């Protein structure tokens, strides 16, 4: 029993690591001068390059994929690309706080989709926890949430990007019932990267000529928010449902705003900092008292190693 409890705690620890990792995404994007579509393309291609040495052990699984699975992988990859394009584009038009707070709508969209598609069960404590976290998210963005000019366009892009990632997560929940995290992530990232390549070719964006610092940012985006963020969250779909995993995005405004305050000099009021505590409290209630606890797994179960063999979903 103690080994199962330790394994459960490790799931929550990894969940927290994923939240911190994705919070760096907006900072790295702000540091880069490249077009957001180019940033996203190389972010994903470099992620695939890092994963490539671990591809061979998964060849048999990939050969067993049917037409429907390939079609859904294609759709999930396109939705991920659309999310990156719209959300990263919003960061050039509005503040980090305003852009990330709109992402707080993701769990609501996924919860609605889960109830509709997967007949997911919800209880009062889950709704209370989500409501508390959403309230805190609104406070964080309220300080500079604007309704005019370029900020409004940025907020709309963030909203559309949130809708796209909600579809991506729901497709992931369905596909991950019979597909390892590695196979799912590798092909979804590759589809998204190729989608960006076609888009950049069509838009006439340069594929080369970037400074070494830009390539460093691309690599940081591949390692930190993609592998330790998106890859990890997709791996957690093995033990948590999509709604619970998506609750991690409610922690992103907290840490993104703190990082933007420290690294970008963006203002952050005492009220917004207090709201961060409210958000984390709401996320804790949702996970602690909701009916979405991680499955019982052995303490020595493989965690996020790209080439590891995962336990089957029960």
From TrEMBL:
Keywords: Cell membrane, Membrane, Transmembrane, Transmembrane helix
Database matches in Pfam families: EamA (PF00892)
Recorded topology in the membrane: Multi-pass membrane protein
Domain EamA: 11-140, 153-287
Record-annotated membrane-spanning stretches: 12-31, 37-58, 70-90, 96-118, 125-144, 156-175, 182-203, 215-233, 245-264, 270-287
InterPro entries named in the record: Diverse_Substrate_Transporter, EamA_dom, EmrE-like
Subcellular location: Cell membrane
Superkingdom of the organism of origin: Bacteria
Main location, first listed in the record: membrane
GO cellular component: plasma membrane
Similarity comment: Belongs to the EamA transporter family.
Protein name: DMT family transporter
Organism name: Paenibacillus barcinonensis
